[in-house]
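subagent[fold] <- orchestrator: predict structure for attached chain, return tokens only, no commentary.
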Amino acid sequence: MSQLSPAPEDKTRTVVHFLRHGEVHNPTGILYGRLPNFRLSLNGQSQARIVGSALADHDVTHVVASPLQRAQETAQPIAAAHGLQIATDDNLIEADNAFEGLRVAVGDGALRRPRHWAKLRDPFTPSWGEPYLQIAHRMLAAANTARDAARGHEAVCVSHQLPVWTLRRFMQGNRLWHDPRNRQCGLASLTSLIYEGDLLVDIVYSEPAGASDPMVTGA
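subagent[fold] -> orchestrator:
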């Protein structure tokens, strides 16, 4: 009886770019989280166009964004450059946060008020918002969906700083709790997942719109 030959290994190369949205118009400096109607600033619009130009000659066949306005606006130049419609995936949304709508800069606003201190009791889960592991799992689901939609090509997923950084740490096998000051996820930056078949083989970070401080309020 002859033995069956093993199935050939799938080496199809697919790239899933996770794009953090551009700078947001936030004159009051609040933590806007999932609040509606937070749009890109003029600088943020410029950043989105720069990324659109940087990806114009890439083989992008799928563009998907968080449902929040700033992400949808960031996705527009990329989708337009490739003649694509923007899909929406709720898994790409910003992390839920108990301080949403408040000022939370260090030494300022809500963090100085004792009634809010209980929310800070556990930085590892964290206690003030959506658990890191939950963020990682939904972002991984978004990555898998986008990879399947763009198999053999490139996909762009527009999301938010904490979800993108959490996904990267999860994929690299790092602990999920971290110092926010050390996030490598600037405004309009790309965190690109490189796949061969379903196997992740590399993660590449780039800043086509230039560097930015991850701790800047309103970003």
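orchestrator: received. Logging for downstream: The chain has a mean pLDDT of 91. The CA atoms of residues 115 and 121 lie 12 Å apart.
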